[in-house]
Each structure stands twice: as structure tokens, then as C-alpha cells.
Amino acid sequence: MLLVDSPYKLHGIKPLFLMELFIAIGLPTVLLFGLTLLFMSDGIPCWVRQFNKYSSTLWNFGVVAMSTMTVIIFLARR
Q: How far apart are CA 40 and CA 38, in angstroms?
């Protein structure tokens, strides 16, 4: 996993691994839960409703951006 050997371990688990685990699992969970509570109490904000109007444009931009990044990464590793 991590190549850093730290003298501070929690039952054999390295602290950097715990931070990565929190970023990978905890942060999205906290954001999802927080946004759910926000939308349940105040209703859906107008800026979120506008995403529905432009959803196909956002999807197309996302696909093109990921494809471009994949090609750039592939060419950079050659």
C-alpha cells in the first residue's frame, strides 16, 4: 500500500492510509449526507434546478473531458 514506514501506527495501520481511507470513503459520505439534509430542509436551490436544463451539455462535456485526459495520460506515459 504505502511505502512510508511510520513509527506511529494504530494496530499496524499507517496514519497516511487512514487519511486516504477517509478521503476515499468518509468525505463523499459526509458530502452526500450534508447535501441531502440541505435539500430536505430548504428545498432544491435554483442553481441545482438549472443543471437539469443543461444536463445533456454537462454529460457531453464530462465524456469529452475524461476522454481527452485519458489520451493525454496515455501519451505522456509512452
A: 6
Neighbours of 17 (CB within 10 A): 15
What is the chain's length? 78
Which residues span the domain enclosing 64?
Answer: 44-78
Q: Which residues contact 14 (CB under 8 A, 6 or more apart)?
A: 1, 2, 4, 6
pTM of the entire predicted model:
0.42
Report the alpha-carbon angle 40-34-20, nearest 5: 155
**Is 60 exceeded by the pLDDT of residue 1?**
no
Overall number of domains in the chain: 2
Higher pLDDT, residue 69 or 14? 69
